[in-house]
Amino acid sequence: MDKCIQEIVKDKRCRLKQLPNVFAGSELVDWLMLVGLAHDRTDAVKYGRHLLQGRVIRHVENMHHFHDQPLYYTFRHDENLDTMRSFND
């Protein structure tokens, strides 16, 4: 998952709110297909839902299941992302 985090997790702005260390559901779906972990978007959504149910990721406001949409999610260990990013720079 480290490669996924490095490639899709970013700080984003939604309306007037800054969202640190997030990714859109559709970005994770694209990435899962790109690296061959899912054959199609349906498989990728299932994978994302397993990550959500396994408490690896969460919706930023804990309001949605995983969807192939521009809804924002974060990895649950996101407090370590800034440290990991600065280490890799």
TrEMBL record:
Name of this chain's protein: Integral membrane protein
Pfam families with a match to the protein in the record: DEP
Protein's organism: Armadillidium nasatum
Matching Gene3D superfamilies: Winged helix-like DNA-binding domain superfamily/Winged helix DNA-binding domain
Stored PANTHER family: DEP DOMAIN PROTEIN, INTEGRAL MEMBRANE PROTEIN GPR155
Residues of the DEP domain: 19-77
Listed GO biological process terms: intracellular signal transduction; negative regulation of BMP signaling pathway
Origin: domain of life: Eukaryota
